Amino acid sequence: MRSGNRSGVVTEEGYPKLKVFPQKRIAHFRLLLMAKINSAIHLTRQFCLNKIN
Prior knowledge:
Elements: H1 2-52
């Protein structure tokens, strides 16, 4: 019972910290992902235009 309670305390203490940290990370990751997608779209568009011309 005591070990179970301890793990509960750890998750309760650790959870808010984890909750705050990944949201910033996720936002940063999303920005990176969007930038990568945009650059990929741009490159493919240029490639298609060059192929057509």
